[in-house]
Amino acid sequence: MDADLRGDMKPPNIVILTGAGISQESGLHTFRDGDGLWAKHRIEDVATPEGFARNPALVQGFYNARRAQLRDPAVQPNAAHQALAELEAHWPGEFLLVTQNIDNLHDRAGSSRLIHMHGELAKARCLRCHAVTVADGDLTPESACPECGAAGKLRPHVVWFGEMPLQMERIGAALDACDLFVSIGTSGAVYPAAGFVQEVRHRADTLELNLEPSEGSHLFDEARHGHATQLVPGFVREMLAKWG
Ligand code: BV8
Fold it and tell me: What is the dihedral sign for C-alpha 133, 135, 141, 143?
């Protein structure tokens, strides 16, 4: 993976996609690893609109437990989150970080050119007035919307299966302009995120940084396997040494 080969003098426009694997070393569960969230909960029960309509208390409880874990002082951004924030701060070209994660570890590490395409754990959305508000405590089926006051109309501001991910137009524009696409800590199991590499691979350099080969690993120019807290700082040092 070497942008110089194309004789480019300008720094590549970078799009980075992250998944649950980047937060694993901060102590947050992934989805599909052995001890993952989907080993304990059925997707259709806790990560679909139908599951929420069927049993809102169960779904609110699932996200309340994850929100509580995020408030644990032991859960902090790790070296991989911090390295990406440093890359953004010093990158001379275009940069966008798209995360599938609903935790706030990229935000707390200082990333700002950041899109949470699957929503955010610490926010709620009102089904009555559609306001998105801060939800750092527990939500119950009786919780009232801070904006319009409607009770029992709050849901997690999270994208469930069958729902449209957020800011897809902005993501599409960044992918159209990107010269380097880097996928970090994701199994490549969920679309449309898993399809991004396919969209760009004919004209951009593509790199996977993951604990093990993802489902789409064969689609990348290069794949490096190991822990994110090792791979990502090394990748950022390499990029800033060449272009910073
Ligand atoms: C949509 C909710 C359309 C928030 C999530 C058939 C074919 C293609 C698509 C579909 C299909 N059937 C249905 C679909 C669509 C569906 C889909 O893709 N289904 C899959 C199962 C086939 N997708 C959707 O429904 C999406 N919406 O398509 O809308 C549409 C179009 C127009 C109009 C309306 C609608 C919505 C998908 C979003 C679902 N919500 N989460 C939450 O609860 O968190 S998905 C959930 O899983 C995550 O958000 C994440 O995005 C996704 C993938 O998980 P990963 O982040 O990759 O985590 P995972 O555990 O899988 O992997 C972790 C990786 O890290 C592993 O590889 C591991 O090796 C690695 N790792 C672990 N530790 C480390 C590490 N790496 C480095 N270091 C470490 N330390």
Answer: negative
